[in-house]
Amino acid sequence: MSGSNDHIGGEARRYGAATIADAVARLREGGLVAVPTETVYGLAADSTDAAAVAKIYRAKGRPDFNPLIVHVLDLDAARTLGQFNELAICFAKALWPGPLTLVVPKTADCPVAAAVTAGLDTIALRVPAHPVMRELLAASGLYLAAPSANRSGAISPTTADHVARSLGSVVPLILDGGACKRGIESTIVAIDGSDYRILRPGPVTPAQLESIAGKPASTVTNGKIEAPGQMLSHYAPSKPVRLDAQTTRSDEYHIGFGPVAGDTNLSVNADLAEAASLLFAALHHAEASTKPRIAVAPIPEGGIGLALNDRLRRAASAK
Ligand code: TXA
Ligand code: MG
């Protein structure tokens, strides 16, 4: 990925000192900047600036009841926005920086704009690991609200080119940091006193969380929709998706895994982390193909396979 995207509306520029300075200036003026993280590209704005946050919702066409994740540099910064009990601190110390989002009660004087949390008394916080996002956080000194940089309901972007195709007309600057290593959105964990719930499966697996907490996630829900973005129609490609496809039909673009070759293969060696890093790129590719339908080979549920299958089921149920 390089400056070759410059022709597509918003400008995708290879990350460097000059682009970071430009990005910081835009963010301080209340503008939007697309930025790579280790999971997917995010669409960032100053979370304390209500007008800037409103631009995120407008650019994505995102319903305003779906709250945003706030990205901060470290646990100390996170604690100025959210209340961390012992369990939350344990998770943060073990897994930050990294692909884990913690949902905790807001602090009494949390400076984040009300629209970020969509009226909830909790806030979703993440300390990202990607060097470009970290440099942007450090250089700006801002707390950055950043949902995935795609139009609401569409597949998340894992390259600057995906962002340019989805949001290029409304996002003036895309920091190009190459392909995202994890390729799938962060694991979201809600802290409930001494218990925790997994609101969205992701790169951090239930087994990892259990080994840190010393107990499994609780499955009790209080009946409310707790991660509003987890509505089933999320992650929808524009074509019908058929799962567990061992063989392909003539009108399908086939995404393979392991021994099921497919038109493209997520991991010939059946490595789930590799498959996760390539899944959204494969779906973007399948969308762009001339075939009207998408088929996906079976993918085992273990480890990060849980998150892969979660995204695939959402994609398949949308049509
Ligand atoms: O990996 C990621 O998490 C990426 C990168 C850019 O950091 N971001 C991302 O953001 O996936 P987004 O907006 O696509 O998903 C955020 C999810 C939504 O499902 C939203 O409902 C949930 O986080 N969320 C945000 N605040 C919440 C809260 N206070 N309580 C429960 N869920 C919340
Ligand atoms: Mg998203």
Set out the fold topology:
Blueprint: E1 11-14, H1 17-28, E2 33-35, E3 42-46, H2 50-60, E4 69-71, H3 75-81, H4 86-95, E5 100-105, E6 122-126, H5 131-140, E7 144-145, H6 160-167, E8 173-176, E9 187-192, E10 195-200, H7 206-213, E11 241-242, E12 252-256, E13 264-265, H8 272-288, E14 293-296, H9 305-317
Parallel strand pairs: 1-8, 4-6, 5-9, 11-14, 12-13, 12-14
Antiparallel strand pairs: 2-3, 3-7, 4-7, 5-6, 9-10
The site of magnesium ion has 3 residues, from loops.
Order of helices and strands: EHEEHEHHEEHEHEEEHEEEHEH
| CATH C-level class of the largest domain | Alpha Beta
Unreliable residue stretches: 1-8
Radius of gyration: 19 Å
Task: Report the portion of residues in β strands.
Answer: 15-25%
* First-residue to last-residue Cα separation: 32 Å
Outline, from the CA principal axes?
A: globular
Mean pLDDT: 92
Instruction: Specify the helix fraction band.
Output: 25-40%
Looking across the biggest beta sheet, what order are the strands in? 2-3-7-4-6-5-9-10
How many helical stretches?
A: 9
- The CATH architecture term of the largest domain is Alpha-Beta Complex
Can you say what the CATH homologous superfamily of the largest domain is? DHBP synthase
What CATH calls the topology of the largest domain is: DHBP synthase
The total count of strands amounts to 14
Whole-number count of domains: 2
Largest sheet: 8 strands, mixed
Q: Which class do the helix and strand fractions yield?
A: alpha/beta
